[in-house]
Amino acid sequence: MTDQEDLQLIAHLRREYTKGGLRRHDLTDHPLELFERWLKQACEARLADPTAMVVATVDETGQPYQRIVLLKHFDERGLVFYTNLGSRKAHHIDVNPRVSLLFPWHMLERQVMVQGKAERLSTLEVMKYFHSRPRDSQIGAWVSKQSSRISARGILESKFLELKQKFQQGEVPLPSFWGGFRVSIEQMEFWQGGAHRLHDRFLYQRAGEQWTIDRLAP
Asked: Active-site residue numbers?
């Protein structure tokens, strides 16, 4: 297949969005209430990884990066995820705490986008979550120096077995380089696919203790 044929194949890939719209009367006063409703529906629809969210950060040169992490908690203070504090994303946040999040719920023809600032969680919060994880996941947190270059997967596997033996007795200690971030909610946008590409978009923006809500053109 030629490059031109590849382009034509992609150009003709399209479908209609038919799962219904999002109207002003469907909205809630606070974005978290609508987010919780949509997340529950995503779970009930048995989507693969409904808590998966894209985290976008920017490095010191202005270069953006994206990766997928899992949402582990949310409340009025923000949305929480955990990571290696030596990772690329953590370094970016140290330089520029402004991040964006995206929940791509394709099967429901929905997206939720969040903009806010990330701040590190307290050691107590991190420890509580760390010890709630499966034991092998706790050990796995010790194994990887995230984002660093390695020569082969076998290095990780050997290190995992070594640490599994080391920590076979008692609790797995919390690594000093492992933690979490809470992303405050300054803006939250809800996107619902619509027929004829007339999608519904509503943007919540924080205004003190209140929220303004605007409909955006698709």
From this structure: 197
